[in-house]
Amino acid sequence: MAISANDFRSGMRQLAAAVNVITTVHAGKRAGMTATAVMSITADPPQLAVAVNRSNASFEAIGGSGIFAINVLPHDHADLASRFAGGAKGDDRFATTTWDTLTTGAPILLDSAAVFDCRLLQTIDFSSHVLFVGQVAAIQVKPTSTPLLYMDGTWASLVRASAEDFDSYDQVIVQIDAAITDVLAQPMRPTDHLMAFSRAFADISVGAIDVLRAFFARESFVPAARLESINLRKRTVERQLQGLLTRGVDAGEFVPLDPAATAAAIIGMLNSVYRRPDLSGGEISHQLSQLIVSMVARRPGQPHHH
After folding, report:
1. For residues 270 and 130, what is the distance between their CA atoms, to the nearest angstrom?
2. Is 194 in contact with 293 (CB distance < 8 Å)?
3. 47, 54, 219, 255: which could join 41 in a potential S-S bond, CB 3.0 to 4.6 Å?
4. Does the reported pTM lie above 0.90?
5. pLDDT by residue (tens digit) across 222-267?
6. Shortest CA distance to 80 belongs to which of 100, 99, 62, 94?
7. Could you tell me which residues come within 8 angstroms of residue 154 by beta carbon, excluding any fewer than 6 positions away?
8. Inter-residue contact 22 to 50 (CB < 8 Å)
């Protein structure tokens, strides 16, 4: 069965690819293009290839110069990718960023996630495109950079599943668990316990806001066993909070409620702190603790049912 061009493109839209700017200099003029069709050929010797449409202005420039650089763009360079994809022309494409050279003389983007500076070894014809195979003459790498991706017609970015991020988040849960244990050990009414716990939870979260953001951005990539160990610790916090809510109902301070659902709602509110970097720890912890207590507190004159 023949595969239509539309069917092929539809499938390729799901193939996420790193976004690169291919650069060269020929007859004193810089040229460049945005490309995702870049592939590794061999590691020993190091060789890469890029597919270039014959109609692209960079086709003649690369073939004439015999050199090219593959600049792997970081995730915050979508604007540059657009410029080299046709948003600007000629040397104007190079105007907004800082460029240098390594070995071949091809322009290299200084803040690239990686640069492969290549000498042209071979050209292979493929219909409307030519595959330029290059010998890598120099490499520049930023291992911690997050590359820009292209998928389904739009820009995307790589999410790194970092064990360090998971460990740091786990330690935040340890602190919260210890905080509620300390609060419950104090001789206070359930209302005051809930107020103190909410304040402590919010203060800890504000202090670890970068850790929370990193974890929640990567949570779906956490290995199952690691995530389960984190969730077990979180359920310990939830059980302590459920017990506090139940005692508040028994003492007539809280309205009748579902302790499990209410605890989940409270923790959800407290977890949202990482979305409010504009507020100080003291300010947001005060606001949240007041709101949480008002949600569950029995009003004067309200009947006490249990």
Report:
1. 56
2. yes
3. 47
4. no
5. 888 888 999 999 999 999 999 999 999 999 999 988 999 999 999 9
6. 94
7. none
8. yes
Only one residue has tokens 């020993």, namely: 44
Q: Is 95 exposed, middle or buried (0-12, 13-18, 19+ CB in 10 A)?
A: exposed
Residue 300, classed as helix, strand or coil, is coil
User: Distance between CA 61 and CA 29 in Å, rounded?
Assistant: 9
Q: Are strands 17-18 and 99-100 parallel, antiparallel or unpaired?
A: unpaired
Structure tokens at 233: 């610790």
State how far the Cα of 263 lies from the Cα of 267, in Å rounded to an integer.
6
Residue 3 per-residue DSSP state? P
List the beta bridge partners of residue 148: 157
The CA-to-CA distance between both ends of the chain, in Å, stands at 70
Report the relative pairing of strands 99-100 and 108-109 from DSSP bridges: antiparallel
Backbone phi and psi for residue 172, each to the nearest 5 degrees, phi listed first: -65, -40
CA distance 4 to 226: 44
DSSP string, 42-79: EETTEEEEEEEETTSHHHHHHHHH-EEEEEEPBTT-HH
- Tell which residue, 189, 183, 220, 218, has the closest CA to residue 202: 183
Q: Is 238 exposed, middle or buried (0-12, 13-18, 19+ CB in 10 A)?
A: middle
Give Cβ neighbours of residue 175 (< 8 Å, ≥ 6 apart).
Answer: 204, 208
Q: Where are the alpha helices (DSSP H) in the chain?
A: 5-12, 57-65, 78-82, 163-184, 190-207, 209-218, 224-250, 259-271, 281-296
Write out pLDDT tens, residues 27-36.
999 999 999 9
Contact 63, 120 (CB under 8 A): yes
Closest residue by Cα to residue 184 from 247, 257, 262:
247
Residue-level pLDDT at 303:
57
Which residue type does 127 have? Answer: S
